[in-house]
């Protein structure tokens, strides 16, 4: 925490004892910020001073509120590099790959290490100078998975903490409205007492419902908190329009192949893996220069890296996970066979396997995406429940957005099942909401249930076809559209009544027998859209 401590009589405020303005206890200036955080949340203990609290280690303020970032790494040096480059050997690489996923370990801390996204973060962009000046506006970061939304928030967190701003993280998948209220009240206290700003980062903000989003709207408006939301979903549909209008929407793109190559190259360098150009031999006897100090050097083909950069489809997490699995599999194979002198070589095939395990090959924006959804639609239409499930799983296991599939099911419910089973639409909407509430992987079975229901359901395109006929009729019409017949018009004013609006209209409930009355314009009299065939 970087808060300026409250005034003390002594010249060095960090050494002087100061009084906490909340609980009025005295404690060393150096401890005031840590103490204050706990005190504002009612967590400071009644006895002892701030140092004693710090030494005892107090519990995190709230289970769902975690401080945003770990201790910053030295500038320009990734955590893996900090672990030392004595590596290159299988044992040190295996150690580095243990624990947290590689993607997390390599998450950059500074804008300088953030790769790509030139359009929104380049030197000419609006955002970059603001971030560099620590003037962070409320932002919605919108982009596909693994493109760097959380990473950008993490960088903002690191730099804003240096500036004395608090940074609090909530995940919309687990946080409750009360958690948001807690953050807001802390932010109000901080602002009122210490003029200290709070940035609230909400991951997957689209998972918050409207009421939850409403909770922080006024506080964003009056500047109590600066909101940074991350979402993979189009914010126009998923974020309150009032909230949206108070935030800048930053559209992050899939990382380019070149950007992915930079990220992967950085990863292999951090691990101490040597990259082999085309035609280079990997054995230590052939190169004469195994990785320094390694008993079992590890190499990767340049081609393997470029293939990985291409196949991960702009998702850095997928690329780094694929690399990690490929390396771990090769190391395990080396250990199992006891081979040692020539080291391990990671080829294109190995990274494909690594990717296949972490992420079934599936191009979410490319042709495969459309091919698979088309195959699913046709299998359900053909009432083949077996094939329907297969295509669903191909998409979900490949990383498809479950809400995309759910939206297609809503459409299918009306287009193909229609009034043959009107409950299908309810099923589809419920499936969409279920997916929205719980996300992957739990929502996969919701979609599977809906898909099988649809494959088994009776089918009718009666309404779909009739509506297409109406659209066709409108499209083919030349000249002005026929006026609404006077008797069908509402007549809320005397003038309208005088003009004949509503005149002659037969109010059906007043009649025992079926009413003879025209509802179509005069020139369409007798047209039946349910019988007409669309040409
Ligand atoms: N622009 C980038 N520069 C460098 N590394 C990146 C970048 N984007 C992502 N990464 C790497 O990929 C990992 C995953 O990225 P991140 O968590 O930021 O993705 P995201 O967009 O928040 O994805 P999701 O929507 O799935 O949460 C990071 O830990 C980091 O190692």
Task: Kindly list the characteristics that best describe this protein.
535 residues, alpha/beta, Rossmann fold, Helicase, Ruva Protein, domain 3, 5 domains, six-stranded mixed β-sheet, three-stranded parallel β-sheet, 47% helix, 8% strand, disordered N terminus, binds adenosine-5'-triphosphate
Structure description:
The chain is α/β, with parallel strands linked by helices. 47% of the residues lie in helices and 8% in strands. It is globular, with a radius of gyration of 31 Å. It folds into 5 domains: 1-59, no CATH class; 117-251, Rossmann fold, CATH 3.40.50.300; 257-358, Orthogonal Bundle (Helicase, Ruva Protein, domain 3), CATH 1.10.8.60; 367-460, Zinc Finger, Delta Prime, domain 3, CATH 1.20.272; 477-524, no CATH class. Bound molecules: adenosine-5'-triphosphate. Adenosine-5'-triphosphate is lined by residues 103-104, 106-108, 114-117, 143, 145-151, 230, 232, 263, 316-317, 320. Keywords: ATP-binding, DNA damage, DNA repair, Metal-binding, Nucleotide-binding, Zinc, Zinc-finger. Residues 74-83, 90-99 have a biased composition (Low complexity).
């Amino acid at each position: 925490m970087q808060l300026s401590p409250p005034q003390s009589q002594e010249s060095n405020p960090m050494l002087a004892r100061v009084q906490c303005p909340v609980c009025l206890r005295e404690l060393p200036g150096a401890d005031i910020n840590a103490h204050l955080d706990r005190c504002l949340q009612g967590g400071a203990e009644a006895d002892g001073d701030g140092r004693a609290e710090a030494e005892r280690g107090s519990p995190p303020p709230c289970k769902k509120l975690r401080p945003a970032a770990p201790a910053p790494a030295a500038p320009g040096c990734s955590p893996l590099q900090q672990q030392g480059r004595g590596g290159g050997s299988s044992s040190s690489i295996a150690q580095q790959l243990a624990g947290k996923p590689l993607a997390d370990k390599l998450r950059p801390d500074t804008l300088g290490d953030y790769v790509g996204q030139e359009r929104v973060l380049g030197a000419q962009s609006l955002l970059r100078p603001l971030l560099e000046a620590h003037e962070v506006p409320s932002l919605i970061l919108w982009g596909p998975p693994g493109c760097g939304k959380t990473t950008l928030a993490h960088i903002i967190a690191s730099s804003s903490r240096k500036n004395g701003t608090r940074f609090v993280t909530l995940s919309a998948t687990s946080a409750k409205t009360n958690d948001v209220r807690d953050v807001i009240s802390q932010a109000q206290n901080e602002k009122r007492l210490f003029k200290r700003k709070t940035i609230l980062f909400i991951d997957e903000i689209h998972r918050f419902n409207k009421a939850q989003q409403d909770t922080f709207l006024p506080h964003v408006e009056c500047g109590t908190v600066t909101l940074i939301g991350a979402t993979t979903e189009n914010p126009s549909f998923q974020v309150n329009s009032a909230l949206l209008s108070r935030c800048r929407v930053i559209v992050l793109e899939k990382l380019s192949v070149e950007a992915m190559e930079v990220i992967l190259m950085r990863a292999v360098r951090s691990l101490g893996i040597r990259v082999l150009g085309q035609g280079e031999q990997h054995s230590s006897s052939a190169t004469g220069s195994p990785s320094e100090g390694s008993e079992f050097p590890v190499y990767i083909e340049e081609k393997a890296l470029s293939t990985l950069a291409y196949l991960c489809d702009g998702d850095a997490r997928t690329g780094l996970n694929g690399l990690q699995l490929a390396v771990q599999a090769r190391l395990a194979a080396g250990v199992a066979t006891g081979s040692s002198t020539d080291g391990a070589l990671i080829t294109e095939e190995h990274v494909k396997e690594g990717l296949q395990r972490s992420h079934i090959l599936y191009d979410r924006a490319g042709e495969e995406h459309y091919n698979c959804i088309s195959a699913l639609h046709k299998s359900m239409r053909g009432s083949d429940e077996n094939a329907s499930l297969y295509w669903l799983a191909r998409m979900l296991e490949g990383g498809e957005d479950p809400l995309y599939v759910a939206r297609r099911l809503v459409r299918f419910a009306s287009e193909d099942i229609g009034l043959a089973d009107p409950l299908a639409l309810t099923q589809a909407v419920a499936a969409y909401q279920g997916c929205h509430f719980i996300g992957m992987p739990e929502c996969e079975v919701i979609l599977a249930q809906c898909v099988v229901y649809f494959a088994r359901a009776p089918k009718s395109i009666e309404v779909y076809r009739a509506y297409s006929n109406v659209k066709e009729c409108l499209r083919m019409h030349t000249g002005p559209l026929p006026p609404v017949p006077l008797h069908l018009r509402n007549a809320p004013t005397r003038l309208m009544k005088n003009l004949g609006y509503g005149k002659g209209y037969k109010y059906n409930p007043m009649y025992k027998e079926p009413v003879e009355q025209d509802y179509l314009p005069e020139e369409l009299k007798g047209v039946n859209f349910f019988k007409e065939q669309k040409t």
